[in-house]
Amino acid sequence: MSDYSLDIQGNITLSDYSIIEDYMRIVGNRDKITISLQDKSPEEMEMICEILNRDNFEIKSAGGCQDGKLFIEAFKKN
Known about the structure:
By secondary structure, the protein is α+β, with helices and mostly antiparallel strands. The protein has a single domain, classed as Translation Initiation Factor IF3 (2-Layer Sandwich), CATH 3.30.110. Helices cover 31% and strands 40% of the residues. The chain contains 2 helices and 4 strands. It has a 4-stranded mixed beta sheet, with helices on one face. It is globular, with a radius of gyration of 12 Å. It starts with a strand and ends with a strand.
């Protein structure tokens, strides 16, 4: 089982969502990913969660704020 992390800062554009989705494809079964979103809105976090759900991830937690960052922790399902 591998651990991946993705730290997203700045504005997220439509093309960025495509890049994020491409990154999700390298995560293998039962691997963990932690995504941090710097100063992002709940709507942007929701969009990332939708990408994860669509790509067969189980979201363990989403939200929480630490130092201005929102966090999403997810595992790739078998």
